[in-house]
Amino acid sequence: MLRIPMIAVASGLFLTVADTVPEFDIDANCRATTRATDATGERMAACKREEAAARDQLIGVWALAKAATRDTCVGAQSQGSKSYVALVTCMQIAEGSLPWKK
C-alpha cells in the first residue's frame, strides 16, 4: 500500500508524474540537428548549452503554466525531435505572461 505523508497532500506540494518537466535526450536531439553541418563540434556544444538553458527555464515555470498549454506543447514535440528550446518557444507563445528568464 502506498502511503503519502498527509503534510504533502494537505499543502498541495504533491505532484503527479504528469506535472513534471518532460525528460528529453539533449545529446540525441543535438546530434540529429547538427550532424550534417557541424565539422568542429562547436554547434553541438552550443546546441547542448541552449537546450540545457531552456530546460532550466521550464523547471522555473512548468507548474505555473496551464495544463492544456503543457499538454499541447509537449504533444507537438512528439511529432519531431524533442527539443526544450522548441517547447519553451511553444509555451512562451501560449503563455507569454509567465516569468520567463531572459
Which structural category fits the helices and strands?
A: mainly alpha
Number of strands: 0
Summed over residues and divided by their number, the pLDDT gives a mean of: 80
Total helical elements: 5
The proportion of residues forming helix, as a percent range, comes to 55-70%
Tell the overall outline. Answer: elongated
SSE series: HHHHH
Terminal Cα span: 45 Å
Backbone CA Rg: 16 Å
What are the segments in which pLDDT stays under 50 over at least 5 consecutive residues?
A: 1-17
- The proportion of residues in beta strands is under 5%
What does the main sheet amount to? none
Describe this structure in words.
With 102 residues, the protein is mostly helical. It is 56% helix and 0% strand. It has five helices and no strands. The longest helix has 20 residues, at 42-61. The radius of gyration is 16 Å and the shape is elongated. Residues 1-17 have low confidence and may be disordered.
Summarize the structure.
The chain has five helices and no strands.
Task: Describe how the helices and strands are arranged.
Elements (H helix, E strand, L loop, with lengths): L5 H6 L14 H9 L7 H20 L5 H11 L6 H11 L8
Helix pairs in contact: 2-3, 3-5, 4-5
